[in-house]
Amino acid sequence: MSFNNQITSEEESIRQKEIMERLKGRIADISKGLGRPLTYCSICFGCQMNAKDSEKLEGILETIGYVRTESEDCDFLIMNTCTVRENANLRVYGRLGQLKKYKKKNPHMMIALCGCMMQESLVVEKIKQSYRHVDIIFGTHNVFKLAELIETKLDTQSMVIDIWEGTSEIVEDLPSERKYDFKCGVNIMFGCNNFCTYCIVPYVRGRERSRRPEDIIKEIKELVADGVVEVMLLGQNVNSYGKNLDPQISFAELLKQVEQIEGLKRIRFMTSHPKDLSDDLIEVMANSKKICRHLHLPFQSGSSKVLKDMNRHYTKEQYLELVDKIKTAMPDISLTTDIIVGFPTETEEDFKETLDVVRKVRYDSAFTFIYSKRTGTPAASMEFASTDEEIRERFDMLLNEVQGIAKETCARFEGTIQKVLVEGVNEQDASLVTGRLSNNLLVHFPGTPDMIGKFVNVKLAKAMGFYYMGEAM
Ligand code: 5AD
Ligand code: SF4
Q1: Which residue of 1, 69, 167, 305 has the fewest CB atoms within a 10 Å radius of its CB?
Q2: Which atom of ligand 2 sits closest to the CA of residue 199?
Q3: Which is it for strands 209-210 and 136-138: parallel, antiparallel or unpaired?
């Protein structure tokens, strides 16, 4: 592993573009020899940060001449991995085993693995030993280097492994293949400094690094000029944005600047840590015309004791107070959350506190997870206070509660007329289009493909649980 911070990001960006140019010629030659275009398949597990990284990887692959396919029977397969819970890792190994047959059939095929799981040395060892058909392995810090790694693979014909332990570098201005024409994720920071005791993210994504506001604004302006109307500002903990910048800037300040961008219509962001959510941010949100009425505010556990063991830096009471403040400032806000059941020190009493928070806050939706032990994190060496069976029962009870409440909460806008950004034609019924409300809920209504990317006023005729059926007005 290496820790790279010698070259400036500008030099690096130019260097990578030169490599892409060279590779373009080589890929074209291989393609000519085969008498067909070379294809790539991109698989992405995990969160929005990974999805964004995959867009960057896809941008590089398209630039050097690969053509996208959804089939794994392709010439270049890139798998961006997640390791936040154990089952994410198991899925990758399963998939890798299946890929062997394609590689046998197609000797030109390259398989690349990247993302959070590759930042764990035990994983890389296992792949080196048991999955020799993998060609390229890299991590979360050097996504921008894909072209260079492919070039090395073509030159050496042996497995290329390049994992950085960390980096202070942020390489700007490289290609990115956007999934949607009208909306786009924008990284505002990388990494996390919080070290929640259950979480592996700080170990695999490194310390917090914020992008400079001028780089963020420039990127968003370019996106808007290219047709984007909605951005999602991405970071593991957006509320601590700017703390490591000189001069310092707060997330609320950044939002004010983003709000000024002409032509941009909607601003979303995730994820917020309750401990860092400032009054300024609430005020900026409440006064904004563009920031969406949705806040994802993970609480993880309702027990102050468990929260302390998780190193979350807030109590149940502080969290509920914060929610009150937010709801007072924005009565129509939709709140969503993440909850972990079965953290090692959680007892039945602690779990009741979690249920209590769910009942008090009444979330629009909640992601519920059973605690998964991650080697190397402090919680991995804690004793369990409950059995697997007890935890499973709690999980089912919580899911039931969350879903029942969400159904009622989501329905509260039934009968109103709201602006919907149309995202696509409905997958089940082509006479319908599907769009999103400011509060992130989905609406299906009769419409045509020309509406995609546009705002339509829709009457939310019928609440269907987690979505609405509507009529364009
Ligand atoms: N086990 C279960 N859930 C976890 N999360 C993070 N680490 C773990 C773990 N070890 C959940 C948290 C976080 C979300 C992205 O994943 O709820 O907010
Ligand atoms: Fe993990 Fe906590 Fe950082 Fe979120 S804030 S990424 S849960 S350590």
Answers
A1: 1
A2: 1
A3: unpaired
Give the Cα-Cα-Cα angle 280, 283, 288 (nearest 5 degrees): 125
The model's pLDDT over 169-222, given as tens digits with 9 standing for 90+, comes to 777 667 788 889 999 999 999 999 999 999 999 998 889 999 999 999 999 999
Give the burial string for 428-463 (b: 16+ CB within 10 Å, else e). eeeebbbbbbbbbbbbbbebeeebbbebbebbbeeb
Spacing, Cα 181 to ligand 2 middle (Å):
30
User: Is the torsion defined by CA of 265, 189, 237, 123 positive or negative?
Assistant: positive
Contact 370, 394 (CB under 8 A): no
What the block records as the tokens of 455 is 């705002």
To which residue do tokens 């364009």 refer?
Answer: 472
User: Are residues 441 and 410 in contact, defined by beta-carbon separation less than 8 angstroms?
Assistant: yes
Q: Which ligand is nearest to the CA of 195?
A: 2
Residue whose CA lies nearest to ligand 1 atom number 18: 338
CA of 201 to the centre of ligand 1 (A): 9
